[in-house]
Amino acid sequence: MLTTIEGFDRIGEENAFAVLARATRLADEGRDIINLGIGQPDFRTPEHIVEAAIKALRDGHHGYTPATGILPLREAVAADIARRTGAEASPENVMIVPGGKVTMFMAILMFGAPGVDILYPDPGFPIYRSMIEFTGARPVPVPIRESNDFTFSAEETLELLTPQTRLLILNSPANPTGGVTPRAEIEKLVAGLADRPDIAILSDEIYGQMTYDGAEHCSLMGFEALRDRLILLDGWSKTYAMTGWRLGYAVWPEQLIDKARKLAVNAWSCVNAPAQFAGLAALTGPQDAVRDMMREFDMRRKLVVEGLNALPGVSARTPMGAFYAFPNISATGWQAKPLASALLEEAGVAVIGGPDFGTLGEGYIRLSYANSAENIARALTRMKLFLEEPQ
Ligand code: PLP
Protein backbone atom coordinates (compact mmCIF):
# COMPACT_ATOMS: atom_id res chain seq x y z
CA MET A 1 0.00 0.00 0.00
CA LEU A 2 1.54 3.31 -1.07
CA THR A 3 0.82 6.52 0.78
CA THR A 4 0.82 9.66 -1.33
CA ILE A 5 0.67 13.17 0.10
CA GLU A 6 -2.71 14.25 1.40
CA GLY A 7 -3.33 16.63 -1.52
CA PHE A 8 -3.99 13.70 -3.81
CA ASP A 9 -7.01 12.74 -1.70
CA ARG A 10 -8.48 16.15 -2.48
CA ILE A 11 -7.49 16.75 -6.10
CA GLY A 12 -10.44 16.83 -8.50
CA GLU A 13 -10.82 16.85 -12.27
CA GLU A 14 -12.90 18.16 -15.14
CA ASN A 15 -16.13 16.26 -15.55
CA ALA A 16 -16.25 17.44 -19.17
CA PHE A 17 -13.62 14.77 -19.93
CA ALA A 18 -15.74 12.04 -18.25
CA VAL A 19 -18.78 13.17 -20.26
CA LEU A 20 -16.66 13.10 -23.43
CA ALA A 21 -15.53 9.55 -22.62
CA ARG A 22 -19.13 8.42 -22.02
CA ALA A 23 -20.37 10.16 -25.18
CA THR A 24 -17.59 8.50 -27.21
CA ARG A 25 -18.46 5.12 -25.71
CA LEU A 26 -22.13 5.51 -26.62
CA ALA A 27 -21.19 6.62 -30.14
CA ASP A 28 -18.89 3.59 -30.46
CA GLU A 29 -21.88 1.42 -29.55
CA GLY A 30 -23.70 2.87 -32.54
CA ARG A 31 -25.72 5.65 -30.85
CA ASP A 32 -26.05 8.99 -32.61
CA ILE A 33 -24.62 11.37 -30.01
CA ILE A 34 -24.47 15.15 -30.41
CA ASN A 35 -21.68 16.53 -28.29
CA LEU A 36 -22.32 19.94 -26.77
CA GLY A 37 -20.23 19.02 -23.75
CA ILE A 38 -16.63 19.67 -24.60
CA GLY A 39 -15.05 23.12 -24.52
CA GLN A 40 -13.01 23.08 -27.67
CA PRO A 41 -13.55 24.73 -31.05
CA ASP A 42 -14.72 22.22 -33.66
CA PHE A 43 -12.63 23.96 -36.33
CA ARG A 44 -9.30 22.77 -37.68
CA THR A 45 -6.23 24.80 -36.82
CA PRO A 46 -5.73 27.27 -39.72
CA GLU A 47 -3.54 25.80 -42.44
CA HIS A 48 -0.70 28.36 -42.30
CA ILE A 49 -0.21 27.52 -38.61
CA VAL A 50 -0.04 23.80 -39.33
CA GLU A 51 2.44 24.49 -42.17
CA ALA A 52 4.66 26.49 -39.80
CA ALA A 53 4.94 23.50 -37.45
CA ILE A 54 5.77 21.18 -40.35
CA LYS A 55 8.39 23.62 -41.62
CA ALA A 56 9.90 23.89 -38.13
CA LEU A 57 10.27 20.11 -38.03
CA ARG A 58 11.80 20.06 -41.53
CA ASP A 59 14.16 22.90 -40.58
CA GLY A 60 15.51 20.82 -37.74
CA HIS A 61 13.93 22.44 -34.70
CA HIS A 62 14.07 19.19 -32.79
CA GLY A 63 15.85 20.19 -29.61
CA TYR A 64 15.15 21.91 -26.31
CA THR A 65 14.37 25.59 -26.36
CA PRO A 66 14.85 28.05 -23.47
CA ALA A 67 12.52 27.08 -20.60
CA THR A 68 10.41 30.21 -21.06
CA GLY A 69 10.14 29.71 -24.84
CA ILE A 70 11.91 30.93 -27.98
CA LEU A 71 12.59 34.68 -27.97
CA PRO A 72 10.75 35.49 -31.26
CA LEU A 73 7.61 33.92 -29.83
CA ARG A 74 7.88 35.81 -26.54
CA GLU A 75 8.42 39.01 -28.54
CA ALA A 76 5.38 38.24 -30.68
CA VAL A 77 3.26 37.63 -27.56
CA ALA A 78 4.38 40.99 -26.11
CA ALA A 79 3.58 42.74 -29.42
CA ASP A 80 0.17 41.04 -29.59
CA ILE A 81 -0.66 42.15 -26.03
CA ALA A 82 0.39 45.71 -26.88
CA ARG A 83 -1.76 45.65 -30.04
CA ARG A 84 -4.84 44.33 -28.27
CA THR A 85 -4.67 46.04 -24.87
CA GLY A 86 -2.24 48.91 -25.28
CA ALA A 87 -0.24 47.50 -22.35
CA GLU A 88 3.49 47.04 -22.49
CA ALA A 89 4.72 43.55 -21.58
CA SER A 90 8.41 42.72 -21.64
CA PRO A 91 9.27 39.51 -23.52
CA GLU A 92 11.41 38.76 -20.43
CA ASN A 93 8.21 38.35 -18.41
CA VAL A 94 6.44 36.18 -20.98
CA MET A 95 6.49 32.46 -20.46
CA ILE A 96 5.43 29.86 -23.03
CA VAL A 97 3.73 26.91 -21.36
CA PRO A 98 2.22 23.58 -22.44
CA GLY A 99 -1.39 24.84 -22.43
CA GLY A 100 -3.05 27.75 -20.65
CA LYS A 101 -4.08 25.44 -17.83
CA VAL A 102 -0.47 25.05 -16.74
CA THR A 103 -0.33 28.67 -15.64
CA MET A 104 -3.17 28.14 -13.18
CA PHE A 105 -1.40 25.04 -11.88
CA MET A 106 1.79 27.04 -11.36
CA ALA A 107 0.15 30.09 -9.80
CA ILE A 108 -1.99 28.11 -7.38
CA LEU A 109 1.00 25.94 -6.44
CA MET A 110 3.04 29.08 -5.81
CA PHE A 111 0.57 30.59 -3.33
CA GLY A 112 -1.57 27.74 -2.02
CA ALA A 113 -0.80 26.26 1.40
CA PRO A 114 -2.72 25.46 4.58
CA GLY A 115 -3.72 28.70 6.30
CA VAL A 116 -4.00 30.60 3.00
CA ASP A 117 -7.25 31.76 1.36
CA ILE A 118 -7.62 31.72 -2.42
CA LEU A 119 -10.64 33.33 -4.09
CA TYR A 120 -12.01 31.80 -7.28
CA PRO A 121 -15.16 32.18 -9.41
CA ASP A 122 -18.15 29.94 -8.69
CA PRO A 123 -19.46 28.70 -11.07
CA GLY A 124 -16.08 28.59 -12.78
CA PHE A 125 -13.48 26.40 -14.44
CA PRO A 126 -13.33 23.35 -12.12
CA ILE A 127 -9.55 23.14 -12.03
CA TYR A 128 -9.25 26.32 -9.94
CA ARG A 129 -10.96 24.73 -6.97
CA SER A 130 -9.33 21.36 -7.53
CA MET A 131 -5.83 22.82 -7.44
CA ILE A 132 -6.62 25.04 -4.45
CA GLU A 133 -7.84 21.96 -2.55
CA PHE A 134 -4.71 20.09 -3.62
CA THR A 135 -2.45 22.65 -1.96
CA GLY A 136 -4.44 22.63 1.28
CA ALA A 137 -5.40 26.30 0.94
CA ARG A 138 -8.99 27.34 1.73
CA PRO A 139 -11.08 27.75 -1.44
CA VAL A 140 -13.23 30.89 -1.15
CA PRO A 141 -15.88 31.00 -3.88
CA VAL A 142 -16.67 34.36 -5.47
CA PRO A 143 -20.33 34.19 -6.54
CA ILE A 144 -21.03 34.58 -10.24
CA ARG A 145 -24.75 35.22 -10.42
CA GLU A 146 -27.15 35.19 -13.34
CA SER A 147 -28.86 38.23 -11.77
CA ASN A 148 -25.53 40.06 -12.11
CA ASP A 149 -25.13 39.13 -15.80
CA PHE A 150 -22.88 36.24 -14.86
CA THR A 151 -20.02 38.31 -13.53
CA PHE A 152 -18.61 39.04 -10.07
CA SER A 153 -19.49 42.06 -7.98
CA ALA A 154 -16.34 43.98 -7.04
CA GLU A 155 -17.90 44.97 -3.74
CA GLU A 156 -18.78 41.40 -2.82
CA THR A 157 -15.35 40.16 -3.89
CA LEU A 158 -13.56 42.75 -1.74
CA GLU A 159 -15.71 41.77 1.25
CA LEU A 160 -14.49 38.18 0.90
CA LEU A 161 -10.84 39.15 1.37
CA THR A 162 -9.24 38.14 4.67
CA PRO A 163 -5.76 38.79 6.05
CA GLN A 164 -4.96 35.26 4.82
CA THR A 165 -5.91 35.94 1.17
CA ARG A 166 -2.90 35.48 -1.10
CA LEU A 167 -4.41 34.91 -4.54
CA LEU A 168 -7.52 36.11 -6.37
CA ILE A 169 -8.53 34.28 -9.55
CA LEU A 170 -10.59 36.11 -12.17
CA ASN A 171 -11.93 34.83 -15.48
CA SER A 172 -13.52 37.00 -18.13
CA PRO A 173 -14.93 36.16 -20.65
CA ALA A 174 -16.02 33.29 -18.48
CA ASN A 175 -16.39 29.57 -18.64
CA PRO A 176 -19.04 28.18 -18.07
CA THR A 177 -21.37 31.19 -18.21
CA GLY A 178 -20.13 33.25 -21.16
CA GLY A 179 -20.23 36.32 -18.88
CA VAL A 180 -18.02 39.31 -19.68
CA THR A 181 -17.02 41.61 -16.83
CA PRO A 182 -17.58 45.30 -17.60
CA ARG A 183 -14.64 47.68 -17.29
CA ALA A 184 -16.34 49.68 -14.50
CA GLU A 185 -16.53 46.61 -12.25
CA ILE A 186 -12.86 45.78 -12.86
CA GLU A 187 -11.88 49.38 -12.13
CA LYS A 188 -13.76 49.19 -8.83
CA LEU A 189 -11.99 45.97 -7.94
CA VAL A 190 -8.55 47.32 -8.84
CA ALA A 191 -9.16 50.42 -6.71
CA GLY A 192 -10.27 48.24 -3.80
CA LEU A 193 -7.10 46.13 -4.03
CA ALA A 194 -4.81 49.15 -3.73
CA ASP A 195 -4.21 48.61 -0.03
CA ARG A 196 -3.56 44.86 -0.41
CA PRO A 197 -0.24 44.58 -2.28
CA ASP A 198 0.18 41.14 -0.68
CA ILE A 199 -2.53 39.65 -2.92
CA ALA A 200 -1.55 38.26 -6.33
CA ILE A 201 -4.12 38.23 -9.14
CA LEU A 202 -4.40 35.43 -11.67
CA SER A 203 -6.40 36.72 -14.61
CA ASP A 204 -7.56 33.91 -16.88
CA GLU A 205 -8.14 35.62 -20.22
CA ILE A 206 -8.08 32.53 -22.43
CA TYR A 207 -11.35 33.68 -24.07
CA GLY A 208 -10.21 37.31 -24.30
CA GLN A 209 -10.63 37.50 -28.07
CA MET A 210 -14.01 35.82 -28.05
CA THR A 211 -16.64 38.47 -27.39
CA TYR A 212 -19.83 39.35 -29.29
CA ASP A 213 -21.98 42.34 -30.15
CA GLY A 214 -19.00 44.64 -29.59
CA ALA A 215 -18.68 43.69 -25.90
CA GLU A 216 -15.34 44.97 -24.60
CA HIS A 217 -12.85 42.54 -23.10
CA CYS A 218 -11.19 44.57 -20.38
CA SER A 219 -7.76 42.99 -19.86
CA LEU A 220 -6.21 43.31 -16.40
CA MET A 221 -2.94 43.96 -18.26
CA GLY A 222 -4.17 47.50 -18.82
CA PHE A 223 -3.91 48.36 -15.10
CA GLU A 224 -0.48 49.68 -14.21
CA ALA A 225 -1.37 49.48 -10.51
CA LEU A 226 -1.50 45.68 -10.73
CA ARG A 227 1.59 45.22 -12.83
CA ASP A 228 3.83 43.97 -10.01
CA ARG A 229 1.36 41.25 -8.94
CA LEU A 230 -0.64 40.26 -12.00
CA ILE A 231 -0.26 36.84 -13.60
CA LEU A 232 -1.90 36.78 -17.02
CA LEU A 233 -3.11 33.42 -18.32
CA ASP A 234 -3.73 33.23 -22.05
CA GLY A 235 -2.91 31.04 -25.01
CA TRP A 236 -3.75 29.73 -28.42
CA SER A 237 -6.15 26.87 -27.62
CA LYS A 238 -9.45 28.64 -28.11
CA THR A 239 -8.64 31.64 -30.33
CA TYR A 240 -6.78 29.61 -32.96
CA ALA A 241 -8.50 26.22 -32.46
CA MET A 242 -5.32 24.67 -31.08
CA THR A 243 -6.45 22.77 -27.97
CA GLY A 244 -4.51 19.62 -28.87
CA TRP A 245 -1.23 21.43 -29.51
CA ARG A 246 -0.86 22.19 -25.79
CA LEU A 247 0.43 25.69 -26.15
CA GLY A 248 -0.26 28.63 -23.89
CA TYR A 249 1.44 31.68 -22.46
CA ALA A 250 1.61 33.67 -19.28
CA VAL A 251 2.92 37.07 -18.34
CA TRP A 252 4.46 36.94 -14.87
CA PRO A 253 5.33 39.94 -12.71
CA GLU A 254 9.01 40.72 -12.23
CA GLN A 255 9.05 39.31 -8.69
CA LEU A 256 7.73 35.90 -9.81
CA ILE A 257 9.08 35.20 -13.30
CA ASP A 258 12.26 33.50 -12.10
CA LYS A 259 10.31 31.24 -9.75
CA ALA A 260 8.01 30.34 -12.65
CA ARG A 261 10.99 29.62 -14.89
CA LYS A 262 12.55 27.33 -12.27
CA LEU A 263 9.28 25.42 -11.89
CA ALA A 264 9.27 24.87 -15.68
CA VAL A 265 12.88 23.66 -15.60
CA ASN A 266 11.91 21.18 -12.90
CA ALA A 267 8.80 19.92 -14.63
CA TRP A 268 8.80 20.10 -18.45
CA SER A 269 12.02 21.89 -19.52
CA CYS A 270 10.29 23.67 -22.41
CA VAL A 271 7.28 23.45 -24.71
CA ASN A 272 7.84 21.30 -27.80
CA ALA A 273 9.69 23.38 -30.37
CA PRO A 274 7.48 22.94 -33.50
CA ALA A 275 4.39 24.00 -31.53
CA GLN A 276 6.19 27.22 -30.60
CA PHE A 277 6.83 27.99 -34.28
CA ALA A 278 3.16 27.28 -34.96
CA GLY A 279 2.22 29.74 -32.22
CA LEU A 280 4.51 32.33 -33.81
CA ALA A 281 2.79 31.91 -37.18
CA ALA A 282 -0.60 32.25 -35.47
CA LEU A 283 0.30 35.61 -33.94
CA THR A 284 2.20 37.09 -36.85
CA GLY A 285 0.17 35.68 -39.75
CA PRO A 286 -3.25 36.63 -41.15
CA GLN A 287 -6.08 36.81 -38.62
CA ASP A 288 -8.99 36.19 -41.02
CA ALA A 289 -9.47 32.63 -39.77
CA VAL A 290 -10.05 33.98 -36.25
CA ARG A 291 -12.63 36.43 -37.56
CA ASP A 292 -14.34 33.69 -39.60
CA MET A 293 -14.54 31.38 -36.58
CA MET A 294 -16.01 34.17 -34.46
CA ARG A 295 -18.63 34.94 -37.10
CA GLU A 296 -19.63 31.28 -37.11
CA PHE A 297 -19.72 31.12 -33.29
CA ASP A 298 -21.87 34.24 -33.22
CA MET A 299 -24.40 32.71 -35.61
CA ARG A 300 -24.56 29.54 -33.50
CA ARG A 301 -24.82 31.57 -30.29
CA LYS A 302 -28.03 33.15 -31.54
CA LEU A 303 -29.36 29.77 -32.63
CA VAL A 304 -28.63 28.22 -29.23
CA VAL A 305 -30.13 31.04 -27.18
CA GLU A 306 -33.28 31.18 -29.28
CA GLY A 307 -33.68 27.40 -29.20
CA LEU A 308 -33.07 27.16 -25.45
CA ASN A 309 -35.61 29.85 -24.66
CA ALA A 310 -38.21 27.88 -26.62
CA LEU A 311 -37.77 24.83 -24.35
CA PRO A 312 -40.30 24.29 -21.55
CA GLY A 313 -38.94 25.47 -18.20
CA VAL A 314 -35.67 26.77 -19.67
CA SER A 315 -34.45 30.35 -19.84
CA ALA A 316 -31.12 31.44 -21.26
CA ARG A 317 -29.32 34.76 -21.16
CA THR A 318 -27.42 35.77 -24.24
CA PRO A 319 -23.75 35.02 -23.54
CA MET A 320 -21.44 37.89 -24.47
CA GLY A 321 -18.23 35.87 -24.67
CA ALA A 322 -16.56 32.45 -25.04
CA PHE A 323 -18.67 29.72 -26.72
CA TYR A 324 -20.92 28.50 -23.94
CA ALA A 325 -24.57 28.98 -23.02
CA PHE A 326 -25.54 28.47 -19.38
CA PRO A 327 -29.33 28.16 -19.34
CA ASN A 328 -31.37 28.17 -16.16
CA ILE A 329 -33.22 24.85 -16.00
CA SER A 330 -34.67 25.17 -12.49
CA ALA A 331 -38.25 25.47 -13.79
CA THR A 332 -38.03 22.12 -15.60
CA GLY A 333 -38.39 20.24 -12.32
CA TRP A 334 -35.02 18.56 -12.93
CA GLN A 335 -31.83 18.84 -10.90
CA ALA A 336 -28.98 19.82 -13.19
CA LYS A 337 -26.77 16.71 -13.03
CA PRO A 338 -29.57 14.14 -13.43
CA LEU A 339 -30.85 16.22 -16.35
CA ALA A 340 -27.43 16.29 -18.03
CA SER A 341 -27.10 12.56 -17.55
CA ALA A 342 -30.63 11.82 -18.86
CA LEU A 343 -30.07 14.06 -21.88
CA LEU A 344 -26.99 12.05 -22.79
CA GLU A 345 -28.35 8.58 -22.07
CA GLU A 346 -31.88 9.07 -23.37
CA ALA A 347 -31.76 11.92 -25.87
CA GLY A 348 -28.17 11.47 -27.11
CA VAL A 349 -27.16 15.07 -26.32
CA ALA A 350 -24.01 15.61 -24.25
CA VAL A 351 -24.10 18.68 -21.98
CA ILE A 352 -22.50 19.37 -18.59
CA GLY A 353 -24.40 19.83 -15.34
CA GLY A 354 -23.85 23.23 -13.72
CA PRO A 355 -22.72 21.75 -10.35
CA ASP A 356 -19.59 20.46 -12.12
CA PHE A 357 -18.52 24.12 -12.14
CA GLY A 358 -19.30 24.90 -8.50
CA THR A 359 -22.01 25.03 -5.88
CA LEU A 360 -23.76 27.97 -7.54
CA GLY A 361 -24.08 25.92 -10.73
CA GLU A 362 -27.13 24.02 -9.44
CA GLY A 363 -30.14 24.90 -11.59
CA TYR A 364 -28.05 25.31 -14.76
CA ILE A 365 -26.49 23.22 -17.51
CA ARG A 366 -23.64 24.21 -19.82
CA LEU A 367 -23.86 23.79 -23.57
CA SER A 368 -20.84 24.40 -25.73
CA TYR A 369 -21.82 25.69 -29.16
CA ALA A 370 -18.60 24.41 -30.66
CA ASN A 371 -20.59 22.13 -32.93
CA SER A 372 -22.18 22.67 -36.34
CA ALA A 373 -25.38 24.73 -36.65
CA GLU A 374 -27.06 21.62 -38.00
CA ASN A 375 -26.08 19.54 -34.97
CA ILE A 376 -27.09 22.33 -32.61
CA ALA A 377 -30.52 22.49 -34.22
CA ARG A 378 -30.88 18.68 -33.98
CA ALA A 379 -29.80 18.75 -30.33
CA LEU A 380 -32.34 21.44 -29.49
CA THR A 381 -35.13 19.45 -31.16
CA ARG A 382 -34.15 16.38 -29.14
CA MET A 383 -34.05 18.40 -25.92
CA LYS A 384 -37.48 19.83 -26.67
CA LEU A 385 -38.98 16.38 -27.23
CA PHE A 386 -37.29 15.11 -24.09
CA LEU A 387 -38.51 17.95 -21.89
CA GLU A 388 -42.03 17.82 -23.25
CA GLU A 389 -42.35 14.15 -22.31
CA PRO A 390 -44.05 13.61 -18.94
CA GLN A 391 -41.39 12.33 -16.51
N1 PLP B 1 -9.10 28.57 -18.63
C1 PLP B 1 -10.39 28.35 -18.91
C2 PLP B 1 -11.41 29.22 -18.30
C3 PLP B 1 -10.75 27.31 -19.77
O1 PLP B 1 -12.04 27.10 -20.05
C4 PLP B 1 -9.74 26.49 -20.32
C5 PLP B 1 -10.07 25.35 -21.19
O2 PLP B 1 -11.15 24.84 -21.24
C6 PLP B 1 -8.42 26.75 -19.97
C7 PLP B 1 -8.14 27.80 -19.14
C8 PLP B 1 -7.30 25.87 -20.44
O3 PLP B 1 -6.88 26.09 -21.72
P1 PLP B 1 -5.73 25.18 -22.36
O4 PLP B 1 -6.42 24.15 -23.20
O5 PLP B 1 -4.89 26.13 -23.16
O6 PLP B 1 -4.97 24.54 -21.26
From TrEMBL:
SUPFAM superfamilies: PLP-dependent transferases. This is aspartate transaminase. InterPro entries: Aminotransferase_I/II_large, AspAT/PAT-like, PyrdxlP-dep_Trfase, PyrdxlP-dep_Trfase_major, PyrdxlP-dep_Trfase_small. Signal peptide: none annotated. GO terms for biological process: amino acid metabolic process. PANTHER family: ASPARTATE AMINOTRANSFERASE (PTHR46383). The keyword Transferase applies. GO terms for molecular function: L-aspartate:2-oxoglutarate aminotransferase activity; pyridoxal phosphate binding. The lineage of its organism: Bacteria, Pseudomonadati, Pseudomonadota, Alphaproteobacteria, Hyphomicrobiales. Its EC number is 2.6.1.1. The keyword Phosphoprotein does not apply. It catalyses: L-aspartate + 2-oxoglutarate = oxaloacetate + L-glutamate. Its cofactor is pyridoxal 5'-phosphate. Belongs to the class-I pyridoxal-phosphate-dependent aminotransferase family.
